[in-house]
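Practice problem 4.
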């Protein structure tokens, strides 16, 4: 008899290859993945109940030492268990007091299976002040660059005409539309939208309405649907909407950004903006934590490391860290030399739950993602 430790990425596929009984594969899969859930400001009564219930099924709740004597009224805790444990606790806590009923309703969301295909969103900028010069274009180059991105493996092409880099100034929507109109008309005329999806990087209702009427399908809104008119237009065209988080605005966002808890605050922001989108009839939503938009290096790293948390909303997650300054803060590097750091961030983001990667370097990302997927497809 020989043994060796294995790493299983797709438990169902592994148990099928092992020849397990079909009825048991789902059960085994739910017992194979371990989850760690941080619970903040939990009533001490809830902590004591949940700890006993967790222990009774083989899970665990880590709590401060004074919980058993109710030393503090509210405590933080960490719930540790498998998918099966979380599902069992979701049923057990429904009848319990101290806020456990609300916790029970969310436990299943944290372990829900999601299988989104990874998509590459290539970036094209129709403005002269975008931070990475190689992403800029004029109309004479547009068709060539679009065809090259499609050939290189892009699933989505994101086009913008206004810079959102730190310190950038807002542009009048008429100027924005003038910058982008010809290329949008070219896309429509050549029917490029039949080969790849097009996204508009804008929060201007006038621009968004124009491009959605010309074959674009996605609104990439850095303001996260703050403008009701954008919501109305998105609903009118049944467009997919990317809700991004940004603290303050591009002019001020990097002036000492501060959060009490960046994960919880962005979680609350997404909750509110999703509700707003749904109230306008918007159904197709993508979430973007907004790397570099009102965040320090530590904030960015925490969001990337804990990206999987935001999967509980049930929507696709987008990450766009392409050549951003956080790489320079880790290791001083010019914008032109940040491809390696970009790939490292984006591959880790896919591992942590992202399914849409917004980048400048489509060909290199396509190769890296295919290799990454090949490694993770083996059980």
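Answer key:
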């Amino acid at each position: 008899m020989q043994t060796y430790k294995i790493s299983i990425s797709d438990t169902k596929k592994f148990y099928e290859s092992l020849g397990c009984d079909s009825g048991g594969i789902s059960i085994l899969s739910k017992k194979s993945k371990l989850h760690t859930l941080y619970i903040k400001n939990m009533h001490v009564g809830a902590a004591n109940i949940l700890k006993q219930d967790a222990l009774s099924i083989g899970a665990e709740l880590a709590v401060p030492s004074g919980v058993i004597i109710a030393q503090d009224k509210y405590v933080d805790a960490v719930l540790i268990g498998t998918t099966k444990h979380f599902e069992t606790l979701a049923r057990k806590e429904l009848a319990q007091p101290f806020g456990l009923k609300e916790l029970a309703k969310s436990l299943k969301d944290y372990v829900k299976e999601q299988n989104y295909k990874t998509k590459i969103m290539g970036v094209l900028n129709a403005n002269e002040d975008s931070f990475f010069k190689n992403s800029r274009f004029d109309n004479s180059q547009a068709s060539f660059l679009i065809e090259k991105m499609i050939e290189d493996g892009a699933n989505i092409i994101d086009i913008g005409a206004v810079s959102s880099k730190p310190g950038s100034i807002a542009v009048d929507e008429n100027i924005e539309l003038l910058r982008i109109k010809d290329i949008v008309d070219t896309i429509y005329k050549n029917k490029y939208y039949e080969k790849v999806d097009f996204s508009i990087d804008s929060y201007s209702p006038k621009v968004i309405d124009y491009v959605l009427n010309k074959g674009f399908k996605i609104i990439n809104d850095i303001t996260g649907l703050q403008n009701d008119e954008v919501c109305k237009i998105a609903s009118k065209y049944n467009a997919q909407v990317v809700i991004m988080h940004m603290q303050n605005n591009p002019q001020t966002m990097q002036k000492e950004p501060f959060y009490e808890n960046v994960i919880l605050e962005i979680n609350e922001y997404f909750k509110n903006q999703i509700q707003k989108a749904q109230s306008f009839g918007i159904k197709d939503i993508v979430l973007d934590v907004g790397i570099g938009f009102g965040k320090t290096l530590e904030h960015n790293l925490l969001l990337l490391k804990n990206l999987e948390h935001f999967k509980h909303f049930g929507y696709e997650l987008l990450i766009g860290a392409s050549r951003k300054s956080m790489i320079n803060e880790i290791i001083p590097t010019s914008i032109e030399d940040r491809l390696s750091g970009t790939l490292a961030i984006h591959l880790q983001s896919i591992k942590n739950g992202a399914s849409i990667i917004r980048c400048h370097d489509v060909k290199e990302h396509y190769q890296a993602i295919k290799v990454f997927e090949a490694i993770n497809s083996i059980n």
